[in-house]
Design brief:
By secondary structure, this protein is mainly alpha-helical. The chain has 24 helices and five strands.
């Protein structure tokens, strides 16, 4: 038989979210024995027959037949590719070399538990191979770890791409501020973009860019220039609307920070139920709007202290276990696996990460080895129980029902009684099937959102732009295949947000049709073209410069229109007579390249060919109630301020620094 010894792992890897890997391995084992062979020696046609018969029949016990057929077809497609395009590497030195290549690919993520175990496994596999021993089991485990690492990397890349899209959108709003922080943000976005193109994660840069984006957006939304106050003076108060926007930004940022904390301290929260309960209280406070940034940072500090304390405790426990278990690593059936476990646990703790699961496994091993002849049976049951618990973590709906069954099994195992885990496995697989059906429903909803987005994508406005970014994210999430619980949660949240935005986009589309019917397509299109509402708080191409430290406070700008609905509120001003010109007081000469504009006409300053376009733009801005415009192109920058009398002060310079020096004080009313 021309066997390909890696093929039998495909069903386990691709269907492990529907049926437990142990159950799939038993199915393959029984089916192979019935055909007079072993799983490792099954060839393509034999595996295809098993998938269509035994595996398909087993899947129908937990998921509907159409879903079972779909998933089996996916495995068959991969099986065909594996047999036609390449030969699955055999368990040999070549396989070990492939694992080493895979380990190098993930070397950047050395703090991931899977990476640490893979490194330990490879080191021991090299030693075993050098002594002429069989390393097939180690290579097989390494291949499974590569699959897990690949899934985690792809999920993280999708999340990073979503973060990058939001950062780019926010950057268009703040890029004209021209400060050092803006340049830092631009550099970070460039680094993240390049890494994303290369399929690399930069979590530190993403976090810094996210924090910087929040700070800049908060400064921009507040529309307040911090000035040097006179002794005893108070800073200018925030406009109520601006204050509401700032508070909304803070709540959004705090929610993101709590999600980051939940991810970074997941091992601690899982090991300390009291901290998990406290974290739930903190999240509830944030959702109720009662949590500020300082409170989030205090909670981060508490979590760091808790992790440091638990880490010290685990390091002490490991030192004792290592001393007791080292004699069993020289020979015996368990020696190789025990060496891998000890080495991986050591690396995890040395890197400052918690090793709760590994220590539990080491404790169980130490207790089982202390029982002599019965230790092997107990150790196998303990390992299966740990596998069951780990599998249950990815199916939250099953945990409430499984918890008492797992506790009972652990108590029986500790008492030396016989343990049957078939009932907990059956319960878990039933919930795994329900989760798979739920995922299928999420995919159908995502398809609907993506399809309906295409019908409104031509609309301008922030709503449609945000919906477009979420549609791109949904496409990427839908392609992920089997997902972790964290990825499924993000998928469901993205879908919920997209469905809300889609409803808003449909409403704006109907509003746009009403405007077109009332004013004509040309009027609506012209208004949208002038303000190019795709950017968000500022029209695209408009920049907000940093004000000089000693400048007077700027008038608070009215928020720019961000959707069709915002525009409708300003359309009532079309056709209204312009305010009567007011007498101008005697003024000193205007700065160079400066003008007074009133009623769409220049009333002071030197004629300039570009004024026609600018005056038309200022008329539109006045209709929308804007008080300030800052614009930039490749050659020059412009700034306009509306005075209390209703006219506009307009100035131009080569760059923002020159504009501030030349006309800044005059623009501010001096």
């Amino acid at each position: 038989m021309n066997a390909s010894p890696g093929l039998h792992r495909l069903p386990v890897q691709m269907l492990g979210d529907l049926v437990s890997p142990r159950a799939l391995e038993r199915i393959l084992q029984d089916a192979a024995e019935a055909r007079g062979t072993t799983p490792a020696e099954l060839d393509g046609p034999a595996l295809e027959d098993i998938l269509k018969r035994e595996v398909f029949k087993r899947l129908q016990l937990t998921v509907p037949a159409p879903l079972a057929k779909k998933r089996v077809s996916e495995v068959l497609d991969e099986l065909m590719k594996a047999t036609q395009e390449r030969s699955v590497p055999s368990v040999s030195a070549a396989s070990l070399g492939a694992l080493e290549d895979g380990a190098r690919r993930f070397s950047l993520y050395f703090d991931w538990p899977e990476t640490q175990r893979l490194r330990s496994l490879l080191g021991i596999a090299r030693q075993e191979e050098g002594q002429g021993r069989d390393v097939s089991a180690l290579v097989q485990e390494g291949q499974d770890l590569i699959v897990q690492l690949e899934r985690r990397l792809q999920e993280s890349l999708v999340e990073q791409a979503q973060d990058l899209a939001e950062m780019r959108a926010a950057f268009t709003r703040v890029q004209g501020m021209g400060s050092r922080e803006v340049r830092r943000l631009e550099t970070l976005i460039g680094q993240i973009d390049e890494a994303q193109t290369q399929g690399t994660l930069l979590p530190g840069e993403v976090e810094r860019a996210r924090t910087l984006t929040f700070s800049l957006r908060k400064l921009l939304e507040s529309s307040v220039v911090q000035t040097v106050s006179a002794p005893g003076g108070a800073p200018p108060p925030l406009d109520p609307e601006a204050q509401a926007r700032v508070l909304a930004l803070e709540q959004e940022h705090n929610a993101q920070q709590l999600l980051t904390l939940e991810r970074d301290f997941a091992a601690l929260l899982s090991a300390r139920p009291e901290l998990q309960a406290r974290h739930a209280e903190v999240r509830a406070a944030q959702q109720a709007g009662g949590l500020d940034t300082e409170a989030v940072e205090r909670w981060r500090g508490e979590l760091k202290l808790g992790r440091d304390a638990l880490l010290a405790e685990q390091r002490g426990e490991f030192a004792g276990l290592e001393q007791q278990l080292t004699p069993f690593t020289t020979s015996g059936e368990l020696a190789t696996g025990l060496r891998v476990l000890l080495d991986a646990t050591r690396q995890t703790l040395e890197l400052g990460n918690l090793a709760t699961d590994s220590l539990r496994e080491l404790r169980a091993t130490q207790e089982a080895l202390g029982e002599g002849g019965e230790g092997g049976t107990r150790l196998a049951l303990q390992q299966e129980l740990l596998d069951l618990e780990r599998s249950a973590r990815n199916v939250p709906a099953a945990q409430a029902e499984l918890e008492p069954l797992l506790a009972q099994a652990q108590a029986q195992l500790s008492a030396g009684q016989e343990v049957d885990l078939s009932a907990p496995w059956a319960l878990l697989e039933r919930h795994m099937g329900a989760a798979a059906q739920e995922r299928e429903n999420l995919d159908l909803r995502a398809d609907t959102v993506i399809r309906e987005y295409d019908a409104v994508r031509h609309l301008a406005g922030e709503t449609t732009q945000r919906l477009g970014r979420l549609a791109d994210s949904l496409r990427a999430q839908r392609r992920l295949g089997s997902m972790s619980i964290q990825a499924r949660t993000r998928y469901a949240q993205s879908l919920q947000d997209a469905e809300i935005l889609l409803a808003e986009a449909h409403a704006e589309y109907r509003a746009a049709q009403e405007v077109t019917a009332s004013f004509g397509q040309d009027a609506l299109s012209g208004l949208l073209d002038v303000f190019d509402l795709g950017g968000g708080s500022e029209p695209a191409g408009l920049d907000v410069p940093s004000a000089p430290a000693a400048a007077a406070p700027l008038p608070t700008p009215a928020p720019a229109a961000t959707s069709i609905n915002d525009l409708l509120s300003g359309l009532s001003g079309f056709g209204a007579p312009a305010s009567a010109p007011q007498a101008q007081e005697s003024q000193p000469p205007l700065p160079a390249h400066s003008w007074l504009i009133q009623g769409g006409r220049m009333t002071a300053g030197q004629p300039d060919a570009a004024l026609g376009t600018m005056t038309a733009l200022l008329e539109q801005a006045q209709t929308l109630g804007l008080q300030r415009l800052d614009m930039a192109d490749a050659a020059q920058v412009w700034s306009a301020r509306r005075t209390a009398g209703g006219d506009w002060r307009l100035a131009r310079a080569a760059d923002w620094d020159a504009l501030d020096t030349q006309s800044g004080a005059w623009l501010d009313g001096a």
